C-alpha cells in the first residue's frame, strides 16, 4: 500500500517528505526488486538512500548503522503503511486514548547491537522500540478508503511547509504540490496551480492561476500563466501563456516567450526567442532573439517521419508562415508573411514564397442580386 497513489503521488513519497521535514537525513529501504524503481522515485534527488532486498537487509543495515554519526542517536522504523502530519491533537480533534502507529523509534546503539548478535529484528522492535501515536501526528493506514481521508491534510501540511520556507501561496484550498516537487523561496503559487512529479521551481517564479506543471524545470523569475508544461525545461525570466501548451522535450534559454495559444514540442529556443501567439513549433532548433509572427507553423510530419527545422539567430518568421521540414533558415533572415518555406534560406535573405497578388476588375458585380 505504500506505493498506492494519494493525489497522484505514492503514499511512500508523502511519508518521505514528512520524515525529511522532521529532520530525517538518511534512509534505508527494504524492497523487492520488481518495485525498486517505483520506490526510488519517491525520494528526492540527492537524498542519501540505501535499498536492499529482504535477504540482504541484515548485512547491509549493519553497514548503514555503523556509518551513523554521533548525533544520529535514534532510528525511525516504518513497519507498514502510515502517514505523518505536523498538526497537533487540537487541530486534528482527537479524543480517547492515544492510538499507536506503525512508525517506531528505537535507539541506534540498541538496534546495532541486536543486529550484530543475530537477533530477530521484529522481536527487537517489539521489546525496545516506542511507537509514535496519533498525538504525534502518526497514523497507521489499513485501507484505501481510509487513505483518502488524509488527502487534504497531507496537501495542506505540504503547503504550510512551503509557506514557512518563503513560498507565497494565495489559496491553500486550491493549490496542489506533489511531495517530490521542489519550490524555492520567493516563488508565488496562484490559485489553481498543480505541480507534479520531479518538478523544480526557481526563486521568484509566478505560477498560475490555473497552471499545471509536471516533471519540468522552471527557471528563476519565470512566469507560467494559465498553461500546461510537461517534461520541459524553461530558463530564467521566461514568460509562458496564457493558454500555452509546452510539451515534452522543450528547452528554452533565458528571457524566452511562449505566448497565448502556442503549442511547442521537442524544440529548443535560444535566449530572447519569442513565439507570441497562435503558433505550433515542434522538432525545431530556434536561435537567439528569433521572433515568430502570429500563426506560424513548423510542418514537421509527413505521416511517415518527423523532420527538424533550424532557425538561426535574429531571424524573423512572419505571420502565417509555414516551414516545411527539413528546412534551415539562416542567421538574420526574414520570412515574408504568408509564405510556405520549402527550401533553405540563406543568412540575411528575405524569403517570399507566395503567389503574386492580382485583381479581377468588377468581379464582384456578378455576385450582386439583380434588381427586379
Provide tags for this entry:
372 residues; alpha/beta; 11-stranded parallel β-sheet; 10-stranded parallel β-sheet; 8 helices; acyltransferase; nucleotidyltransferase; Trimer_LpxA-like_sf
Mind explaining what this structure looks like?
- The chain is of the alpha/beta class.
- Helices cover 18% and strands 31% of the residues.
- The strands form 8 sheets. The chain has an 11-stranded parallel β-sheet with strand order 10-13-16-19-22-25-27-29-32-35-37, with helices on one face.
- Strand 1 and strand 2 form a beta hairpin.
- Helix 5 runs antiparallel to helix 6 (121-128).
- Its cofactor is Mg(2+).
- It catalyses: alpha-D-glucosamine 1-phosphate + acetyl-CoA = N-acetyl-alpha-D-glucosamine 1-phosphate + CoA + H(+); N-acetyl-alpha-D-glucosamine 1-phosphate + UTP + H(+) = UDP-N-acetyl-alpha-D-glucosamine + diphosphate.
Write down the overall geometry: elongated
Helix share, percent: 10-25%
- Major sheet summary line: 11 strands, parallel
Strand content: 25-35%
Count of individual helical segments: 8
Mean pLDDT, as a whole number?
90
Structural class, from secondary structure content? alpha/beta
Q: Note the quaternary state here.
A: single chain
Which value, in Å, is the CA radius of gyration?
29 Å
| Terminal CA distance | 83 Å
Strand order of the largest sheet: 10-13-16-19-22-25-27-29-32-35-37
- The counted number of beta strands is 37
Low-confidence stretches: none
Question: What would you say about this model in short?
Answer:
It catalyses: alpha-D-glucosamine 1-phosphate + acetyl-CoA = N-acetyl-alpha-D-glucosamine 1-phosphate + CoA + H(+); N-acetyl-alpha-D-glucosamine 1-phosphate + UTP + H(+) = UDP-N-acetyl-alpha-D-glucosamine + diphosphate. In the C-terminal section; belongs to the transferase hexapeptide repeat family. In the N-terminal section; belongs to the N-acetylglucosamine-1-phosphate uridyltransferase family. Helices cover about 20% and strands about 30% of the residues.
